[in-house]
Amino acid sequence: MSRPAQLLLVLVVYALGAKIALSSGASLDVVRLAVGGAALLAVAASVHYANEYADHETDALTERTPFSGGSGALARTGLSQYLALYAGIATLAIGMVAAVAGTTLGVLSHPALALLTVIAWFGWQYSVGPLRLAWRGWGELDNAALGGLVLPAYGAAVLDGPVWRTLLACLPFFLLVFANLLATQWPDRHADAAVGKRTLVTRWSPRQLRLLYVGAVCLAFGSLPVLAGSVLPAVVAAASLVVLPVSVWGATGYTERRVPFPSVAAMVALVVVQLLAWCV
After folding, report:
1. Which GO terms describe its molecular function (predicted)?
2. Which of 83, 170, 187, 214 is the most buried (most CB within 10 A)?
3. DSSP letters along 93-111, please?
4. How far apart (Å, rounded) are the C-alpha atoms in residues 83 and 72?
5. Domains, the chain, ranges and CATH?
6. Tens digits of per-residue pLDDT, 20-63?
7. Is 169 in contact with 28 (CB distance < 8 Å)?
8. Number of helical (H) and strand (E) elements in the chain, helices listed first
């Protein structure tokens, strides 16, 4: 239920933010990175547990793919949904206590604590009340903003790096995360609608969704020359173009293919390529 593969990706995005900070003049501090990463992993796991708890009905109805339909753990085992809720509360408490302790001891900065609090609050509000953003058509934007912008900004803040530059530098990644979420929500649309979960994918027509997907991809790659030089090093902007064919592949089959592999591959490839390019 904690979705280990996604937690690994969380660490990669965290590393991207930290590397942007280092490239902007921040100093490497292994202790800060370790404490910040541990707190982040606990909070991220809690968000996944909350999602498993809230989505137990739709996950039981949908036909899972490797990239959609939740972990499927509750449906396979028959365990109570409240196990996920209790695990979420426990891991959230561990993560936030670690972050507050780190801030009190001077290991983590106040901006880092604030950003982690945003991740925790809006991560949980994606699934549970009072906001239940995924049930109101705002979940895709919420998830993309957290994973594509706030998460790398947190990585930068842990090393006292420039938060605003990191946010701007990660705009292309944010847009591909948003496109990926449109794709991964698509296979679950009927199950979501059946239980009253009104995601953006259940609200909009296939044609509207395709236009939105293509628009996100175009903005992602169209922003690269604008950001190159002032925000993104030229090598990072150029390397990012390697992912363009995969994104085009994802766009051409969106709403027609059930397994959203190209969209997931494009998102993962972009963060990995950009992280490597920032290291050059």
Report:
1. prenyltransferase activity
2. 170
3. HHHHHHHHHHHHTTSS-HH
4. 14
5. 4-278 (1.10.600)
6. 999 999 999 999 999 999 999 999 999 999 999 988 888 887 88
7. no
8. 16, 0
